[in-house]
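Task: sequence design from structure.
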């Protein structure tokens, strides 16, 4: 492959893109999709076991919120360093190490015997699961040209929906038949299946013997990649330097405001359906799965929208930002979820599902803005900084809104008011995030890390 590197680095951009789904880069996308599926399956299990754990450990809304905060805090702190670790170790080893550790953490929940123990287990799961998205975004940047990255990101990001679909269809059934502990063990073990496939199939493009020269050249057909097709040995970029760029802050604030909404769906949707409509046990499986089925469509569609604009001649960054504004508008109807639910529960499920789909479409695009604006050597680090911000946003929402508000309204028998307020927060978060991101990064500007920071 070294010979390929020497010849392809100076080659002109590929004239005929190799877009067939049989091409090797889409196999890599499938591996990242699988990892993301397992990642979200493992973190979603506890929300579906909440009714069983509430009985066994006598939890109230505040106890569950504290356990949720432990996960988010550890996830946020993990994001602070995991991007740098993955940039240092590379995607192959960094991704594998993260998956190995979070799989152990997921299985470890089965051996917990106290509320504090669950907080510790969730914290370990959070800090190790933090590696998935920095590694996934870096892998996508390594394996796809710029114009395909939003689509590839949307495809692998739909794994978060598939994991959330599989969870309600399997976890309550496992808990009902063989006990809640086995739900943690079985789902956690899937990570080891992924590890076997990862080490069998994965290598960076410069070392991948299965990769054809034509596809290698196409992957590196962007102008910015022409002289950097091989693994670089460029110096590290400090977090402090990355934080001097407005583009970093655009991504950070976008994640801070919108990630907590997804956390809310993931950890509180089963509780909402249970408390509002009296669903119990396996009855909750289909409506929860329906929400994430819709969100999976949104994830892939979120990658298709800007790609369609680009095919019409739009610049990639303009296509991305226009798509994100349209997506933000699609979230807003969630403010009417409860009113629609009074007519029929499935109308509430539908509008929440559309909002969840819009979140995933937003996520596919906001992640891609990082690889649009930053060189590959900094992608995992910037993604990690943004992921940390998203985690802290989730902590703020849980600590200042959900924990206090939900406990208060539950104590006076008016929990529906707490959910009403939350749905308004969900509806407005994306529009606010888009405005701030547009202010900080109004136009496409590729970052030169060796130049002075932008003003």
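Answer:
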């Amino acid at each position: 492959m070294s010979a390929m590197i020497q010849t392809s680095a100076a080659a002109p951009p590929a004239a005929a893109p190799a877009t067939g789904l049989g091409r090797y880069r889409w196999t890599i996308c499938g591996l990242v999709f699988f990892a993301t599926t397992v990642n979200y399956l493992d973190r979603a299990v506890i929300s579906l076991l909440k009714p069983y754990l509430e009985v066994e450990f006598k939890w109230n809304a505040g106890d569950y919120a504290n356990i949720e905060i432990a996960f988010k805090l550890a996830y946020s702190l993990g994001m602070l360093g995991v991007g740098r670790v993955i940039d240092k170790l590379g995607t192959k080893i960094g991704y594998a190490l993260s998956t190995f550790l979070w799989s152990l953490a997921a299985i470890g929940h089965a051996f917990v015997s106290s509320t504090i123990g669950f907080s510790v287990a969730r914290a370990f799961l959070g800090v190790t699961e933090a590696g998935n998205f920095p590694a996934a975004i870096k892998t996508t940047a390594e394996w796809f040209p710029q114009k395909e990255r939003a689509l590839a990101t949307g495809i692998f990001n739909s794994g978060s929906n598939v994991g959330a679909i599989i969870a309600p269809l399997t976890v309550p059934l496992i808990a009902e038949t063989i006990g809640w502990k086995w739900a943690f063990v079985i789902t956690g073990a899937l990570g080891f299946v992924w590890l076997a496939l990862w080490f069998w199939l994965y290598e960076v493009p410069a070392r991948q013997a299965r990769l054809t020269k034509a596809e290698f050249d196409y992957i590196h057909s962007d102008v910015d990649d022409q002289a950097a097709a091989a693994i670089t040995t460029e110096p590290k970029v400090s977090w402090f330097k990355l934080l001097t760029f407005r583009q970093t802050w655009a991504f950070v604030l976008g994640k801070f405001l919108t990630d907590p909404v997804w956390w809310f769906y993931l950890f509180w949707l089963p509780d909402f359906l249970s408390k509002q409509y009296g669903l119990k046990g396996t009855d909750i499986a289909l409506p929860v799965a329906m929400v994430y089925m819709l969100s999976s469509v949104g994830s892939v569609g979120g990658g298709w929208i800007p790609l369609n604009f680009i095919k019409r001649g739009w610049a990639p960054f303009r296509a991305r930002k226009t798509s994100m504004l349209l997506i933000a508008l699609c979230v807003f109807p969630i403010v009417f979820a409860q009113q629609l639910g009074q007519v029929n529960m499935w109308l509430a499920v539908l509008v929440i599902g559309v909002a969840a789909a819009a979140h995933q479409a937003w996520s596919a695009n906001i992640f891609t803005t990082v690889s649009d604006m930053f060189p590959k050597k900094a992608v995992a680090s910037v993604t990690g900084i943004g992921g940390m911000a998203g985690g802290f946003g989730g902590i703020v929402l849980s600590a200042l809104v959900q924990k206090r508000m939900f406990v208060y309204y539950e104590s006076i028998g008016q929990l529906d008011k707490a959910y009403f307020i939350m749905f308004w927060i969900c509806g407005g978060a994306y529009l606010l995030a888009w405005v701030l991101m547009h202010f900080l990064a109004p136009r496409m500007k590729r970052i030169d890390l060796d130049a002075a920071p932008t003003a």
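The longest helix spans residues 376-411.
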